[in-house]
Amino acid sequence: MERRKHLLRGEQAALILALLLLCVVLSALTPVFLSAANLKNVLRDASLIAIAGIGMVMVILAGEIDLSPGSVQAVVGILAVLLLNESGSILLALVGALVAGLLIGLLNGLLVTRAGINSLIATLGTMAILRGGAMVGTQAVSIQARVEGFVQVGTGYWGPLPVPVLITAVLLLLFYLVLHHTPAGRYLYAVGGNAQAARLAGLPVEALKLAAFALSGMLAALSAFILASRLNSGQPNAGLGFELQIIAAVVLGGVSLSGGLGTLVGAGLGILILTVLNNGLVLLDVSSFYHDIARGTVIILAVYLDTRRRGRG
Question: CA 43 → CA 6, 46, 93, 94, 103, distances in Å?
Fold first, then answer.
């Protein structure tokens, strides 16, 4: 265990160095990168991945995977805008979005813990069902929000910082404390490290996994609500490939796909690296086709590093 901690610290130092190097290279290639407006855009984009990424970290630490966050962004964004337009209340739309995300997360968790379906297959199925439902329910047409002020949730500022960045900071601090300073966090690591041993030790393995999926669904829904606010609409094609961005970023940040290993700090660094890379490609006017190539390369690199990490652990 102590060896793993030293390994993670070394990897986090390498991630910080890689992030700084990437920033230096991009600032040399395009002076716009270090502008205050662009750095705020980077943080705002990273916040969408980070909010859903916190839930993904919980699920992966428990030894499972969740492929549904991208489809959750579409479905929950549409539901939130429909509820917003019907009620005129931003708060009610937020509550509805979180409840919808919770139910989707619980469904995923029950398919895994009660039905015994592999989490990759179960969430791949819900991903397809949700995406298809979003397309069918809207006839593939976006739904415009008609309530003034809704757009401020995703684009507004609290002092000098964007609102989504502050929300992300609060959530990162909260779940950092949960993971590293509560019994629930230690139990989650134990379940991901060795579920059978955790079960023999009397830990509620299925309940912990179910809670992880429920949190993943709720946090993906919160990210969806913020994205819908930024777009001021519910988009049936929102979140395409979003789950792959999250998984690539958190695994790049040191969260092991085998479960039981990783930190929110490392995941946050991985998310920043991936977001800065995407932002740099946009500023350099690189074709979107190359964005896909870069994203695929990062995914392969992340999985390779995870394989090496497990071999050394």
Answer: 29, 5, 25, 22, 29
Residue 308 to residue 313: CA distance in whole angstroms: 9
CA angle 158, 54, 303 (to 5 degrees): 130
Partners of 161 in the β-ladder: 158
Residue 217 and residue 70 in contact, taking contact as beta carbons nearer than 8 Å: no
- Structure token digits, residue 175: 């779940």
Average pLDDT score over the chain:
92
pLDDT tens track for 206-233: 999 999 999 999 999 999 999 999 999 9
Residue 308, domain extent: 2-312
Structure tokens at 33: 């990168």
Say if CB 33 and CB 23 are below 8 A apart.
yes
**Res 297 pLDDT > 90:** no
- What is the value of pTM for the model shown? 0.93
Condensed to tens digits (0 to 9), the pLDDT of residues 97-136 reads: 999 999 999 999 999 999 999 999 999 999 999 999 999 9
Angle at 138 between CA 224 and CA 95, to 5 degrees: 35
Arithmetic mean of pLDDT, 181-204: 95
Q: For residues 65 and 39, give the distance between their C-alpha atoms in angstroms, rounded to a whole number.
A: 31
Closest CA to 127 of 181, 168, 72: 72
In the chain, the percentage of residues whose pLDDT exceeds 90 is 79
Closest listed residue to residue 54, CA positions, set 15, 124, 105:
105
* Three-class DSSP category at 94: helix
Per-residue pLDDT, averaged over 244-259, amounts to 90
SS (H, E, C) 162-179: EHHHHHHHHHHHHHHHHH
Strands 143-144 and 233-234: antiparallel
Domain count, the chain: 1
Residue 185's identity, in one-letter code, is G
The CATH number assigned to the domain holding 211 equals 1.10.3470
